[in-house]
């Protein structure tokens, strides 16, 4: 053997046992009687002494990784090979089995995982959006895609939403109807009327009352001049009355003066003067009194009523002067006593003051 001779010349002894680096580094040395043998390791081929090359099992042994066992292909390795499984499968040594990715929680907790041979799918649950492996909550309220009633409040929660009827409405949130508060829970003052509105109510104070906070207060119509200026106003709870003053006719809202002189109680010898709301009685000339009772004035009690040489005669409501016996009544036009008569007129402030002269 040439190698043995070379070895003998170099080391001074023949090779007859296995020493380090006797064989190729991918070979195994076996001692034999008086010699040795080098054999390439499994997966390698060559003479074992100075050459061992990798055996490509994948190309030299077609079908070594049969697809019938679930293998996808063969991968050559130094001194060996590896049967590879398709994506979604795992090796059990002799074959490939499906990987249940759903057990390994590849999907989001908010998705539905479906395992398939060699694969899986993730689908976000209702109320979420994404690719299944990442799912984000859908805010149905903000997007306006909820089925809440228009009179309901929408509350977004994880994966869904809640509908709650607004105050003044009742229902499950998907259907809401108006609550008639006036039929039950409304709290209106006694002096008001309850008016139901969409989702609420309000209290209308009755006529004669005005709202004051949450109360209905009586309106003092008298202070607002509801009656005529010539009427007496009486305020009542929620109302008022008007009564025309004495001397006026009407309903109190409108009052007109009564002409008492049309049917007065004045004396027959008095003159009635109508005034606003009343009247006065004035005794006629020649009478005295309060107008309701008038008595004749005896003018003859005054010594200056008649001129000299004349007697005073009292008559109803007046008097007359009568010349004494032996005298005649003047004036007579163009008589010498005419100028004296004019002087008596001025003195007694009368138009027909007689003057008595000697007959």
From TrEMBL:
Alphabetized UniProt keyword annotations: Calcium, Disulfide bond, EGF-like domain, Glycoprotein, Repeat, Secreted, Signal
Cell compartments where the protein resides: Secreted
Annotated GO MF terms: calcium ion binding
Matches recorded under Pfam families: cEGF, EGF_3, EGF_CA
Segments forming domain EGF-like: 14-53, 98-136, 137-175, 178-217, 218-256, 257-295, 296-331
Residues spanning the signal sequence: none
PROSITE patterns, sorted: ASX_HYDROXYL, EGF_2, EGF_3, EGF_CA
CDD domains reported for this sequence: EGF_CA
Principal cellular location given in the protein's record: secreted
Keyword Disulfide bond belongs to the record: yes
SUPFAM superfamilies cross-referenced by the UniProt entry: Growth factor receptor domain (SSF57184)
One GO cellular component term noted in the UniProt record for this chain: extracellular region
UniProt xrefs under PANTHER family: EGF-LIKE DOMAIN-CONTAINING PROTEIN, FIBRILLIN-RELATED
Name of the protein described by the UniProt record: EGF-like domain-containing protein
Organism of provenance: Callorhinchus milii
